[in-house]
Amino acid sequence: MDASRTRLPGLLGAVAGPVCALLLLTGCSGPAPASPDGPVAETARAAAPAAANDLQADYQRVIEDVLPSVVQIQAGDSLGSGVVYDDKGHVVTNAHVVGDGRTFRVTTARTEESLAAELVSSYPEQDLAVIKLDRLPEGMKAARFGDSAKVEVGQIVLAMGSPLGLSSSVTQGIVSAVGRTVTEGRQGGGTGATIGNMVQTSAAINPGNSGGALVNLDGQVIGIPTLAATDPGLGDSAAPGIGFAIPASMVRTVADQIVRDGRVTDSGRAALGITVRTVVDDGYRPAGAAVVEVSDGGAADDAGLRPGDVIVRLGDTDVTTITSLAEALASMEPGDRTKVTYTRDGDERTAEVTLGEQ
Length: 358
Prior knowledge:
Layout: E1 2-5, H1 39-66, E2 70-75, E3 78-84, E4 90-93, H2 95-98, E5 103-107, E6 114-123, E7 128-133, E8 156-161, E9 169-183, E10 194-201, E11 213-216, E12 221-231, E13 237-247, H3 248-261, E14 270-271, E15 274-280, E16 286-294, H4 299-302, E17 310-314, E18 317-318, H5 322-330, E19 337-344, E20 347-354, E21 356-357
């Protein structure tokens, strides 16, 4: 499955959730079900509106609490979203939202006033960036970031941002899965980043949502919406209800370093220390990642790999392309030991490597 970035321009489809039927099953024997007009039914009818009202109140409370922390970012001719990170005017967003820009215009949820902002640093490898407002408007506050380890499948979440330029928009869904590894395309300004441990959600993620907030019902940001899945079988149009957000833990790791040091100093991303290209077999099918260059003193150098070797497996994961190698590395950490299987002069060989840092 390919994933498509969600920066304007462009249009992705809206979420179409599954249609479910609720069936009341009874056994072959036992008491008959209560009459629809009995006390059980009356209690259920009375409880349903109360439960709906409680859930609606939760939504409204979260929106009122978090929306002032979500902004719209104009970068040249494109629009995206951002989340206020601290009380000093730092705003975290996606690297593909800021692109090559250095200065931006920012609009908050509570005012139409356009504020000036400058880039602090961009980290395309994780598709994250931090910009800083020239000044803080009244009513702006920093968002609260949640614990990624506590994100669970089935949690109700709200996605807040500026899809298609519609600022302060909110969509609703659930956490569909956690721990996804997704590679972003490079077309149209995408970073090509391979990002691990992403949160999959059914909340609608449309162009312009990138860099916004995926929020739980405790009002905590659990991720930064970044990608919407595309279906090659449908001409790369959106696969409804499949979006991905960078987990809050990685957002904090990257943003904290940028705010403190002006750049990312410790990526936490595993690397072999090589430059590679995809090679094909006699049938023109992807067949491995050929080593083009080996960094002196890197993991591959220490393991004896050299230019011309073709990596076909990392650990237990087959490698056929640059992307598959990047996805295999995304599930690992610097310092991990693993086995690299490669071919050299037609012979298959293996080497133990201790992964370095990207």
